[in-house]
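Human: Respectfully, please carefully check these tokens:
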Amino acid sequence: MELTFFGGAGTVTGSKILLETDYKKILIDCGLFQGLKELRLKNWNTLPIDLNKLDLVLLTHAHLDHSGYLPILVKNGYKGKIYATNATKDLAEIILLDSGKIHEEDAKRANKYGYTKHKPAKPLYDINDAKKAIAQFETFKTNQWHTIDGNIKFKFLNSGHILGSVFILLSIHGKIIVFSGDIGRKEPIILDSYEYITKADYLVVESTYGNRLHKNTPISEELLKHIKWTHFKGGTLIIPTFSVERAQEIIYLLSILKREDKLPNIPIYLDSPMGVNATEVYFKHKNSHKLTPEDINSMYSTVQLVSDVDTSKAIVKDDTPKIVLAGSGMMTGGRVLHYLDKCISDKKNSILIVGYQAQGTRGRALLAGDAQIKFFGKYHTIKAEVFKINAFSGHADQNELLDWLQHFKTPPKLTFINHGEPHQSQALKTKIRTDLKWNCTIAEMNKTYHLEHNKILM
């Protein structure tokens, strides 16, 4: 057996892992590169896999950095199935269609305003490509083995990261390989906690926060502090929000604050078609989270859900104080840019960062204290205050990663550390080797690993 990492190695984006046996090729995750331009350009490169010989795609969850390359894979000739949970399929449909639309709009805008070297600029993929990829999904239940053939079977187990997210266990000729995907918090806000796994011959584990510990602070009180301060200034609080999981978490916390009569009397909007649709998916899958019917009703009454363009434009133009949740979470595109265009140069307004910001994104630039950021083809001076709540992460921190790893009854023969920037992966590797005494290595991009011939890697 061989593993090759075509993404998510040395970076937190573009996750793609090819598993090859003597007769089968299986791709685990099929993510889009985001962030740095040098990474985004990789999305245009031909994936070095013969798609006619690719048998199957297994998906850990719906986030774009794990599913966003699927339309390209299908566009380039992949005709096989994409296996996922039912909730992952529902969310992936929303995410991929939105992504295709954004690629179309970005190309159209670049051609209209001339800020492109390409004549004409073309979308990476379009809505039709996304629809074709969605048609190839097949869904499976969690917590039970499913047979691929006489030698290979797989199981999905809840990973607690987003709705429908799973660990993937593959049993091949009796050898078990575990792919963590993204691991959630031990005590998520609205989801059930990740499940433990006791046995693996080989393990691939993420390291997004492999070098840090999340603060154990009451998130709702910190959120309220920034709301009250911005309201005191008479400004608008913009919360660039990941449409899946983070939006629903924030709406839930806001609904609690409203029930406790702590919020100022200002309108709150979720201005994101994808965020609105994703919220509906969460409410649909009632057995996949901790929200009660009362919680859901309270969330509906707390935040105005906005999808149509005319309403969105009217809210952008409105100068009265408000709270706006809008995508995208790293400010790489989406409706949040229109709010930034209106508000970012006025010091009475605030921007609250509530999620991971990859290298090369506008969110990362704001956190770094840059004086200007560029979007819509021009630079915008930053005068609005910028805040961040670190405790909002959907990824396990170092202690939570170790908690999950320590439940393996025996060490895997080899553990691959991926999905982390170099310093994060290195920190987790050092911790695993020191505390657990496990054989582990940091996965390298485009490198093939022979699982049956591994050595102890320092």
About this structure: The first helix runs from residue 37 to 40.
